[in-house]
């Protein structure tokens, strides 16, 4: 049952009495935290604009816990926040801006930008709030945040909300080697592609904010916030956006100069992603290619690799072909441990598409093929096979000798595909490898060498070759014996005869002795004689007893075959003893 105080606040929340609101507003000023908490809850539930505006006015006097609750209810405050920013006195407007910033309330970006353009006393906190909104919208888009909340009200980011002043627009960008949520992410700016934007509620918001930012840039040329506004466009923009085209089309204007400087220097994932996006334009600007040729910070290189597809389309390859130097490649000291294994295949694809000197491309390919994981080696070997077959052979040989099971298995899988000398014998050797993945790879490469093929070929091969082939079949296909038994039981006479002769020729008849004994009851005399001749090679009491029985068969040719088989068995026994 609710306590009397809670009942009172429930009544005040639902009451239409004109004195209910003044009572709730007075409750915000009392010393008891629990009363203030219930007053805040009641005002939010009532949703009355006047009460919400007064709640915003009292915001800076409330405890951190109560302010967090208000920040989390920014959607309910939407109309009150707009009125407070547009019509309120400085303290009320300042409180409203703080709530918008803490909640990253996207719908209020446009009204905040008006304050920035006015360049009054609230311009700086307004710009800071816009920076947080842009940053959080970018985070939500690149983290597929369409499942995280509705437009205009974001849930708290992991670890709590970003504090005032922590906008990445104005904060220090990470130095080379530092890690962060975006530095380690594989999504990159490509998460702003059409697949996400056409299915997320943030699409319209992003477009609206870009339009408002572009308008703000045009009106804020003489303000100290021009760089921040341009940076925000670079964070959210893509190659096809009008706001981006407008900035970059005039490199000599103040906004244009800032935009190109941002592209050349910023390590914000959104800005680096814009560079990658612009590389897919029909004809990339020379200024853009110059940026790719100059930047050597690992964050930038890794972001490009994350953005790139595994296979560069012709348009991207054409633009990259105009890149003639990459300062992060030194043929005399090739080292790419700083590139995650999952991106080393893309490293080969990226470098191979550029127009840098061939010795530099070759150095990268060689390093990846000798040091990368399976995916990277596959990409490098494919590139090398077209130009440097000798280097590719050496790389595969190194892989066969690797201590890494996956790398050994990969190298094994390349022996036939890359026409490596003595591939067949190398594959046969690896059928006895202690590593299961290597054995499996060898079996897969030799799977064309199967029982059906040997049953077609055995009578054209020398006896010792046939026996070796039988041993090999058992290693390649663990089900060889079962397959041979199926052939021996085939309803087709020709297949049964061929299977009997093939089993004996390949030395596999002992493994299928049980089925051969069953076949001694076959009605076909030709098959029966072939089975008798084959069983003569197998010592054992059961075989001897069956042959003794057949010495008294009604058919003289069967009796003769059985007698001959028993004599061979006796002669073999003498030799063994």
Describe the protein in words.
This protein is mainly α and 577 residues long. The protein has three domains: 1-103, Alpha Horseshoe (Leucine-rich Repeat Variant); 112-173 and 184-307, no CATH class; 451-576, Serine Threonine Protein Phosphatase 5, Tetratricopeptide repeat, CATH 1.25.40. It contains 33 helices and no strands. The longest helix has 21 residues, at 556-576. It starts with a helix and ends with a helix.
In short:
The protein has three domains: 1-103, Leucine-rich Repeat Variant (Alpha Horseshoe), CATH 1.25.10; 112-173 and 184-307, no CATH class; 451-576, Serine Threonine Protein Phosphatase 5, Tetratricopeptide repeat. The protein is built from 33 helices and no strands. It has helices at residues 4-14, 20-27, 33-46, 49-57, 64-71, 78-87, 90-103, 109-118, 123-142, 194-197, 202-219, 226-236, 242-248, 254-265, 269-278, 286-294, 298-307, 314-320, 341-353, 358-371, 374-385, 389-400, 405-414, 423-430, 436-445, 451-457, 463-476, 480-488, 493-505, 513-518, 525-535, 541-550, 556-576.
């Amino acid at each position: 049952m609710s306590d009397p105080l809670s009942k009172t606040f429930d009544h005040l929340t639902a009451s239409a009495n004109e004195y209910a609101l003044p009572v709730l507003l007075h409750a915000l000023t009392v010393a008891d935290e629990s009363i203030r908490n219930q007053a805040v809850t009641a005002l939010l539930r009532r949703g009355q604009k006047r009460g919400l505006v007064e709640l915003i006015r009292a915001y800076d006097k409330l405890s951190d816990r109560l302010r967090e609750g208000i920040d989390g209810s920014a959607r309910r405050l939407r109309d009150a926040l707009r009125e407070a920013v547009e019509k309120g006195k400085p303290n009320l407007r300042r409180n409203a801006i703080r709530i918008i910033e803490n909640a990253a309330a996207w719908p209020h970006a446009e009204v905040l930008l008006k304050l920035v353009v006015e360049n009054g006393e609230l311009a700086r906190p307004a710009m800071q709030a816009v920076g947080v909104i842009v940053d959080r919208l970018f985070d939500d888009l690149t983290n597929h945040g369409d499942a995280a909340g509705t437009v205009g009200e974001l849930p708290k980011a992991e670890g709590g909300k970003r504090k005032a002043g922590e906008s990445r627009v104005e904060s220090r960008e990470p130095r080379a080697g530092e890690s962060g949520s975006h530095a380690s992410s594989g999504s990159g700016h490509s998460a702003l592609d059409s697949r996400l934007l056409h299915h997320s509620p943030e699409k319209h918001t992003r477009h609206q904010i870009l339009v408002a930012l572009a308008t703000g840039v045009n009106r804020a040329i003489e303000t100290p916030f021009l760089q921040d506004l341009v940076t925000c466009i670079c964070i959210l923009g893509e190659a096809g956006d009008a706001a981006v085209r407008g900035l970059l089309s005039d490199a000599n204007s103040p906004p244009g100069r800032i935009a190109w400087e941002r592209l050349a220097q910023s390590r914000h994932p959104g800005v680096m992603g814009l560079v990658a996006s612009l590389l897919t334009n029909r004809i990339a600007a020379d200024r853009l290619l110059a940026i790719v040729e100059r930047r050597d910070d690992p964050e930038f290189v890794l972001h490009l690799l994350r953005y790139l597809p595994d296979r560069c389309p012709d348009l991207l390859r054409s633009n990259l072909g105009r890149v003639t130097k990459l300062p992060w490649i030194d043929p005399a000291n090739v080292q790419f441990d700083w590139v995650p294994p999952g991106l080393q295949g893309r490293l080969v694809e990226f470098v191979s598409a550029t127009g840098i000197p061939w010795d530099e491309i070759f150095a990268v390919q060689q390093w990846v093929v000798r040091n990368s994981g399976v995916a990277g080696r596959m990409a490098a070997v494919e590139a090398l096979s077209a130009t440097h077959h000798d280097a590719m052979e050496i790389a595969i040989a190194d892989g066969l000798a690797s201590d890494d099971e996956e790398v050994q298995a990969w190298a094994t899988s390349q022996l036939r595909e890359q026409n490596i000398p003595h591939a067949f014998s190398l594959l046969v050797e690896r059928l006895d490898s202690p590593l299961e993945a290597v054995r499996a790879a060898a079996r897969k490469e030799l799977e064309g060498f199967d029982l059906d093929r040997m049953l077609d070929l055995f009578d054209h091969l020398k006896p010792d070759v046939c026996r070796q082939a039988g041993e090999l079949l058992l290693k390649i296909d663990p089900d060889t014996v079962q397959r041979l038994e199926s052939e021996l039981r085939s309803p087709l006479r020709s297949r049964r005869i061929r299977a009997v002769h093939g089993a004996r020729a390949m030395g596999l008849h002992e493994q299928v002795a049980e089925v051969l004994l069953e076949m001694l009851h076959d009605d076909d005399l030709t098959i029966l004689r072939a089975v008798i001749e084959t069983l003569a090679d197998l010592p054992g009491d059961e075989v001897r007893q069956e042959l003794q029985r057949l010495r008294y068969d009604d058919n003289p040719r069967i009796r003769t075959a059985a007698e001959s088989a028993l004599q061979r068995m006796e002669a073999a026994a003498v030799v063994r003893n």
